[in-house]
Design goal:
The protein is an alpha/beta fold and 398 residues long. It is 39% helix and 20% strand. The chain contains 15 helices and 14 strands. The strands form 2 sheets. The chain has an 8-stranded mixed sheet with strand order 5-4-3-2-1-6-8-7, sandwiched between helices. A 6-stranded mixed sheet has the order 11-10-9-12-14-13, sandwiched between helices. Strand 13 and strand 14 form a beta hairpin. Helix 1 packs across helix 3 and helix 11 crosses helix 13. The longest helix has 25 residues. It is globular. The structure holds adenosine monophosphate. Adenosine monophosphate (AMP) binds next to helix 10 and helix 12.
Length: 398
C-alpha cells in the first residue's frame, strides 16, 4: 500500500510517496514558486532526478506536475495514481477541535479554514493544498488531515490557559496549543518502543531542535507540557524567533520605534533568535564558525540558546517530578554533540551520564547515555512524513 504525504505552503508543495510495507520513501519532491512561475524537483528512490520549469498558477497545476513526475517522467515510480491508497496532509493548526488526525470531509475542511485566524501563515496554504489535491486526484482517494497541534491536546487547563483576562480564552481561543506535535509524537513513540519497559519511559522529554525548536514533557505517552504556545513563536530562542520574552519589551520597543503589531510580529518571528543576537545567520553551523573565529555575539547566541534549553528541560523535570529518558531530534538535536553534552552536564545531579564516544556518532538512532546512567538519553532522527503516512493508513484502515 502506498501513501502520498503532502506539506503545502502558500507558494510551495513538499511531498513524499511512502511504501507502507516497509516505510521506505519511493519518491520525494518539491514544487516551488507556485503562483509566480513554477518549478518541480522530484527524486525517485533509485537516485533519478526529474526537474522542470512548468506553469503553476495555482496548487492544482503543481499537483498535476507531481502526478506527471510520479507516473510518466524519467523518475517515475508508479504507473498510475490509482496505486496511491490515500493522501495525508500536514495541517498546522487543529485548534481545540482536533485531538487526533481525521478523514477530510467538507466539514473538516471548513474547520481548517476557520482555524486560519490562529495560524494565518499556514492553515490557508494547507487548505489550498487540500482543495487542489481533491481536484487533481479525484474525490475517491481518501484524504487525511494530520494536525501539528493534536498531540498537545492532552495538556491540562493549568498548563494551557494564559494568565490573561479569561474572556480572551473564551472569546478568541487564546491559549497554548503547541506545535511540532507530529515530530514529538513520532520521537516519543520510538523512544518508548526502544526502551521497551513501560516503567522506564513514564516520564520523558523530547527536544526538537532545528531551525524551529520546541521541547515537550510527556507523561505515560501523553503530552503534559510543551514549550511552544499560542503560536510557534513561544518557548526558547530559535533560528529567527525570540521564544518567550517579557511582553513589556515589545510595547516599549513599539513605542520607541513607532512599530505596528505587524512589524513586531515580523521582528519576533523573522529577525530575532540566533540571527538577531549573532547578526551572522539563522543557521547554527554558520554561527558556530563565526564563534570559532572569535565573533563574541555569535558565542553569546550559542550560549544563550543552550542555557534556555537547559532551563526548559530542568523545568519539565520539576513539573513531572522526575524524568526517565530524554531524546534529541531535529537538525541541531541530531548533529550538535557539544550542545547535547552541555545539556546533559546540567543534569549530572540526577545521576545522568553520557558516553562521549556514542555522543560523537551521527545520523542514526543511538543511545548516548551510559548503561549505569540514571536517565536514558537518545538521539532519534525525526520522521514527520512517516508519522503522517502511518496516521493516514490507520484512519483509512478503520
Ligand atoms: P532543521 O530545521 O531540523 O533542518 O535544522 C536546521 C538547523 O540544524 C540549522 O540551524 C543547522 O545549522 C543545524 N545543523 C545541521 N547540522 C548541524 C551540525 N552538524 N551542527 C550543528 N548544527 C547543525
Amino acid at each position: 500500500m502506498k501513501i502520498f504525504v503532502v506539506n503545502a505552503g502558500s507558494s510551495s508543495l513538499k511531498y513524499q510517496l511512502i511504501d507502507m510495507e516497509n516505510g521506505s520513501v519511493l519518491a520525494k519532491g518539491l514544487c516551488e514558486r507556485i503562483g509566480v512561475t513554477g518549478t518541480i524537483t522530484h527524486k525517485a528512490n533509485n537516485g533519478t532526478v526529474y526537474t522542470a520549469d512548468t506553469d503553476m498558477p495555482t496548487h492544482l497545476e503543481a499537483f498535476e506536475a507531481v502526478i506527471y513526475a510520479l507516473t510518466k517522467s524519467e523518475a517515475k515510480v508508479i504507473d498510475s495514481f490509482d496505486e496511491i491508497s490515500a493522501i495525508g496532509h500536514r495541517v498546522v493548526q487543529g485548534g481545540s477541535i482536533y485531538d487526533k488526525s481525521c478523514l477530510i470531509t467538507d466539514e473538516v475542511l471548513k474547520d481548517i479554514e476557520d482555524l486560519s485566524e490562529l495560524a494565518p501563515l499556514h492553515n490557508p496554504a494547507n487548505v489550498l493544498g487540500i482543495k487542489a489535491c481533491i481536484k487533481a486526484f479525484g474525490k475517491d482517494v481518501p484524504q487525511v488531515a494530520v494536525f501539528d497541534t493534536s498531540f498537545h491536546q492532552t495538556m491540562q487547563p493549568k498548563v494551557y490557559v494564559y494568565p490573561l483576562p479569561y474572556e480572551y480564552f473564551e472569546k478568541y481561543g487564546v491559549r497554548k496549543y503547541g506545535a511540532h506535535g507530529t515530530s514529538h509524537k513520532y520521537v516519543s513513540e520510538r523512544l518508548i518502543d526502544i526502551i521497551g519497559d513501560k516503567s522506564k519511559s513514564e516520564k520523558i522529554i523530547t527536544c526538537h531542535l532545528g531551525n524551529g525548536c520546541s521541547i515537550t514533557a510527556i507523561k505515560d505517552g501523553k503530552c503534559f507540557d510543551t514549550s511552544m504556545g499560542f503560536t510557534p513563536l513561544d518557548g526558547f530562542m530559535m533560528g529567527t524567533r525570540t521564544g518567550t520574552l517579557d511582553p513589556s519589551v515589545l510595547t516599549y520597543i513599539a513605542a520607541k520605534e513607532n512599530l505596528s503589531p505587524e512589524d513586531i510580529n515580523s521582528i519576533c518571528n523573522k529577525k530575532s533568535g540566533i540571527l538577531g543576537v549573532s547578526g551572522v545567520s539563522n543557521d547554527n553551523r554558520d554561527v558556530h564558525s563565526a564563534a570559532q573565529a572569535g565573533n563574541e555575539r555569535a558565542s553569546l547566541a550559542i550560549d544563550m540558546q543552550r542555557y534556555q534549553i537547559i532551563k526548559f528541560v530542568g523545568s519539565y523535570i520539576a513539573a513531572m517530578n522526575g524524568v526517565n529518558a530524554i531524546a534529541f531530534t531535529g537538525g541541531i538535536g541530531e548533529n550538535d554533540s557539544a550542545l547535547r553534552a552541555e545539556v546533559c552536564e546540567s543534569l549530572t545531579y540526577l545521576g545522568l551520564k553520557i558516553d562521549p564516544t556514542k555522543n560523537a556518532e551521527r545520523g542514526k538512532e543511538i543511545k548516548i547515555s551510559t548503561d549505569d546512567s540514571a536517565v536514558d538519553v537518545y538521539v532519534i532522527p525525526t520522521n514527520e512524513e512517516l508519522a503522517i503516512a502511518r496516521d493516514t493508513l490507520a484512519i483509512i484502515s478503520k
